[in-house]
Write a structure and sequence with these properties.
Number of helices: 1
Order of helices and strands: H
Shape: rod-shaped
Number of strands: 0
Largest sheet: none
Radius of gyration: 58 Å
Length: 142
């Protein structure tokens, strides 16, 4: 059976005093410290997520710029290749024209030489025929 006497009240008062002292000097500082840590941790987690989002955005921007640079490089390369091919065609046409002109010039020179040789041969044939006829006949032909 429970006896209610003055010691119970003293124990209750001592308990409340100890509870008040512990709350004031132990529990509140510990709870405040834990709250601060929780706040810092949440703040750091939030800041970490922000940094992660920023890093993702920068990575996406980097990828986009890299893709643009590759596209620009491809277009530039294709344009330069096209220009090079056109320049090559121009050079080939010029060289072909130059070769054709040179061939025509050489042909003209050859035809002149042929005509010169023909006229020379015509003269020599006449002379040789006369020489042969003179030798065969044994007399001089005029």
């Amino acid at each position: 059976m429970i006896n209610l006497n003055y010691t119970l009240f003293i124990q209750i008062i001592v308990f409340l005093a100890v509870l008040w002292v512990l709350t004031r000097f132990l529990f509140r500082p510990v709870i405040n410290t834990l709250d601060e840590r929780l706040g810092k941790t949440e703040g750091l987690n939030k800041k970490g997520k922000e940094i992660e989002e920023e890093a993702k955005k920068k990575a996406e921007e980097y990828e986009y710029r890299l893709k643009e640079a590759r596209h620009w490089a491809r277009e530039t390369r294709d344009g330069l290749k096209k220009d090079g091919l056109e320049e090559e065609k121009k050079i080939i046409r010029a060289v072909a024209k130059e070769v054709k002109d040179s061939i025509e010039e050489k042909k003209g020179g050859i035809y002149k030489d042929i005509e010169l040789v023909k006229s020379e041969l015509g003269k020599r044939i006449e002379e040789n025929s006369r020489d042969i006829a003179e030798k065969v006949l044994g007399r001089r032909i005029e």
